[in-house]
Design a protein that fits this description.
Layout: H1 10-18, H2 25-33, H3 39-43, H4 57-67, H5 70-77, E1 83-91, H6 93-99, E2 102-107, E3 118-123, H7 129-141, E4 147-154, E5 162-168, E6 174-179, E7 189-197, H8 214-225, H9 230-243
Antiparallel strand pairs: 1-7, 2-3, 4-5, 5-6, 6-7
């Protein structure tokens, strides 16, 4: 019986590239491994049969960690056992300028492709986009969830221009945000968002996101240059966020 190679094998990246990044490496692996739409029969692979097991809700959420895949979140979205929210984040033109994709070059160390020394990707700027999306998430949901973002993918020629995946570190709920097309310059940008999981259940603790990037720069500027105390700054930020409700 032929086996499906592991998700870390470079073949999935090659296939994704040939498909213009319409599906991620992990999505392709899951698609073939689970035999969706009869793909194993079409590829001449013997289906892998697994026993039917009814997983508890928390087990289903935890299993998503292995894939970190937005298609798996879509499957949860259609599951009536999980609560879900859908909303649209609107970035102002100035906000989008701070987090819009940037082109970066990565060196390759693949012995199987010695002639290809580097590859260019578009990525969201590090430490900049996560606090902004987290703030908009709070404005729209008012939930006590503390989002930890797992992945942000930019696909200029893919099905979606930008896709973001995150998870609450307490209740395990999953967040997915999509910007479907590359926006024109100096325009507002819409991100279609889905949040699904156990977010309505009591959270064990009120966790706080670590301050990074522009957020910590803004805080330091207020504290050092304007002489505002840490307590006063926190109070002002809390009032500002509550007023945006």
């Amino acid at each position: 019986m032929d086996e499906v190679v592991v998700a870390t094998n470079h073949v999935w990246q090659d296939i994704s590239f040939e498909l213009n990044n319409r599906m991620s490496n992990n999505a392709l692996h899951v698609f073939v491994y689970k035999g969706y739409h009869g793909i194993k029969e079409k590829l001449g692979l013997t289906p892998i049969k697994t026993p039917d097991v009814v997983l508890r809700k928390i087990d289903i959420l935890n299993n998503l960690d292995d894939n970190d895949d937005s298609e798996s979140i879509d499957e949860l979205d259609s599951d009536e056992d999980f609560a879900n929210k859908k909303f649209v984040i609107t970035f102002s033109s100035d906000e989008w300028k701070t987090i819009q994709p940037q082109r970066v070059k990565y060196n390759l160390m693949d012995k199987k492709r010695p002639l290809q020394r580097f590859k260019t990707y578009e990525v969201l700027p590090k430490n900049t986009w996560t606090p902004l999306i987290a703030e908009h998430f709070w404005i729209h949901t008012q939930l006590p969830c503390c989002l930890s973002f797992h992945r942000a993918k930019v696909s200029p020629n893919g099905e979606n221009y930008v896709s973001v995946v995150g998870r609450c570190s307490d209740c395990g709920s999953y967040f997915k945000g999509i910007v479907s097309e590359k926006p024109p310059e100096n325009s507002r940008v819409l991100m279609q968002c889905t949040y699904v999981g156990n977010f309505n259940e009591l959270h064990k603790a009120t966790k706080k996101r670590r301050m990074i990037g522009p957020v910590i720069e803004k805080a330091l500027s207020s504290i050092v240059e304007q002489g505002i105390s840490c307590e006063t700054y926190r109070e002002k930020e809390a009032v500002r966020l509550m007023k945006t409700d």
